[in-house]
């Protein structure tokens, strides 16, 4: 059976790759890649491998779906010629990578084994940059377009990361800028249903290379519709939880009783 390995190499290319992921790349006969330089692959993966650069298939002024279809066709074509193929993606293959699920579904129908290998995601990087304990308030990762389309209810007791703020209500990929089609006004209207206008927010840009530093730009909810010039493909909107929520006193009492029953235990 043919095999396709979908490998996440982290946000800083191969400097964050796991040993398991690297072994899969090295064992492959052909390597399809996006957002990674050929020289970097050859540096970390010695030997003869057929390399397929998928970047040219991601065209400006096309819909994301159309771009993904072209990349998927290129990967499938490569599998027709090689038994073991690796598809390298930046970050984590399970975080916002449409092709992961599409290729798994295709593999199930065409007797191709598809295996996914984890990578450090942009979320991992942002949580570290923000010095955030992601369990303290609870944390939600949301695609902003799904939130708007389905009018999802925001739980303001949790911290939130809104992905794809570079393309709000806009399915067209535009590498030249997001000033015309990016509807941040809709995002602002949505957020003001749940947060006061002076509630703090941050645009977080996860570093995409070893030489690049991650950035945090602080604003308030009422400024959201003015931030197009600060946004690019690597930008995520972070909104911290509202404070001073009420607690369930009956649960607190149980916790205090349990703690008291163990206060005499020696450590």
Written description of the protein model:
There is one protein chain. 30% of the residues lie in helices and 20% in strands. By secondary structure, it is of the alpha/beta class. It is globular, with a radius of gyration of 22 Å. The chain has helices at 19-27, 38-44, 64-81, 98-109, 122-129, 144-149, 184-191, 249-261; strands at 2-8, 30-33, 50-53, 84-89, 112-117, 139-143, 159-163, 200-205, 215-220, 235-239. The protein has two domains: 2-120, Tetrapyrrole methylase, N-terminal domain (Cobalt-precorrin-4 Transmethylase, domain 1, 3-Layer(aba) Sandwich); 123-239, Tetrapyrrole methylase, C-terminal domain (Methyltransferase, Cobalt-precorrin-4 Transmethylase, Domain 2), CATH 3.30.950.10. The strands form two sheets. A five-stranded parallel beta sheet has the order 3-2-4-1-5, with helices on both faces.
Structural class: alpha/beta
Give the uncertain stretches in residue-range form: none
Question: How many domains would you count in the coordinates?
Answer: 2
Using only C-alpha atoms, the radius of gyration works out to 22 Å
What integer is the average pLDDT? 91
Beta-strand residue fraction = 15-25%
CATH homologous superfamily (4th level) name of the largest domain: Tetrapyrrole methylase, N-terminal domain
- Could you give the order of strands across the largest sheet? 3-2-4-1-5
Determine the fraction of residues in helical runs and give it as a percent range: 25-40%
Please report the first level of CATH classification, the CATH class of the largest domain. Alpha Beta
Largest sheet: 5 strands, parallel
CATH architecture of the largest domain: 3-Layer(aba) Sandwich
Number of helices: 8
Count the strands? 10
CATH topology of the largest domain: Cobalt-precorrin-4 Transmethylase, domain 1
The helix/strand series, from N terminus to C terminus, equals EHEHEHEHEHEHEHEEEH
First and last CA, distance: 55 Å
